[in-house]
Amino acid sequence: MEELAYSRRMRATLLTLCLMTAAVLSPAAQTTSTPAPAPVYANMNQLMRGVLYPAANVVFFAQADNPAEVKWVEGRDPAMATDPLASVFGGWQAVENAALALAESASLLSIPGRTCENGVPVPVRDPAWETFVQQVRDESMKSYAAAKAKDQDKIIELSLALSNSCSNCHRRFRDRRGGAANRCKVEPVPAPAK
What are the tens digits of pLDDT across the range 132-151? Predict the structure, then answer.
């Protein structure tokens, strides 16, 4: 009799453990928290002028001049330099950092909620936009590798592709008939002819 009671208690305990495990592992019990969307502070024009344009200029500098030959300004603290090439982290390191800033900025170009200067939402889900952003990222990382190797010839070779990755997007979304009012507007795709 005692064995039967013990056996029933064990089965009940085992059943309880199985049910608790199933409840804990069930999809309903697993809550996934979605991170809050990243806050957006700058419109596209401000982001371009404040981050991408200055960083691109540092990368493009290496086409014509050797970044290693840039010297600190006499009598000025290089830690306070406004020119990245002549700062404490200047020379080729500035080109490396600028290329990385461009690559990282590609993510900023894709944050939902950003608008163009005219208030039109940036078309972050448009396939062409996504392609152009990825091109900026890819070409920036190639430029980073060239800067890390201090390979000015490679920087010269890559500069056209980096410039084109920007220009292609500008032609499609920025430089449009109608001026600034039409920036970031996505043209409707025509329906196939029947």
Answer: 999 999 999 999 999 999 99
Q: Determine phi and psi for 60, rounding to 5 degrees.
A: -70, -20
The model carries a pTM of 0.76
Where does residue 95 rank: exposed (0-12), middle (13-18), buried (19+ CB within 10 A)?
Answer: buried
* Domain ranges (residues) in the chain: 44-182
Topology at the third CATH level for domain 44-182? Four Helix Bundle (Hemerythrin (Met), subunit A) (1.20.120)
Are 183 and 116 within 8 A, CB to CB?
Answer: yes
DSSP one-letter string for 149-188: TT-HHHHHHHHHHHHHHHHHHIIIIIS-TTGGGGTTPPPP
